[in-house]
Automatic annotation (TrEMBL):
This is Pre-rRNA-processing protein TSR1 homolog. It holds the Pfam family RIBIOP_C. The lineage of its organism: Eukaryota, Metazoa, Chordata, Craniata, Vertebrata. GO terms for cellular component: preribosome, small subunit precursor. It comes from Chiloscyllium punctatum. Signal peptide: none annotated.
Length: 83
């Protein structure tokens, strides 16, 4: 924290570089060595009003969590208040 670095990235298409706004910061991130392991995460999902198709448990989906994106076969359960 608190350090400024210069990152050099090769093989970037010119079209991508042209689309970047130099006034907007570019965020870079990586995973720590142990962050490839399986974990349990709890999400509350809400279906969009236009979506009426059923979604099966264990059907692989793509999740966006902060700046990370990953594929996972979720298990669904009823959301309760815990009482």
């Amino acid at each position: 924290p608190g350090w400024y670095v210069t990152v050099h990235i090769g093989s970037v298409p010119v079209s991508l570089m042209d689309s970047l706004d130099p006034e907007v910061p570019l965020a870079l991130f990586t995973l720590l060595p142990h962050e490839h392991k399986m974990s349990v995460m709890h999400f509350l999902l809400r279906r969009h009003a236009s979506n009426t198709e059923p979604i099966k448990s264990k059907e692989e989906m793509v999740f966006h969590c902060g700046c990370r994106r990953f594929r996972a076969p979720p298990l669904y359960s009823q959301h309760t208040s815990g009482m």
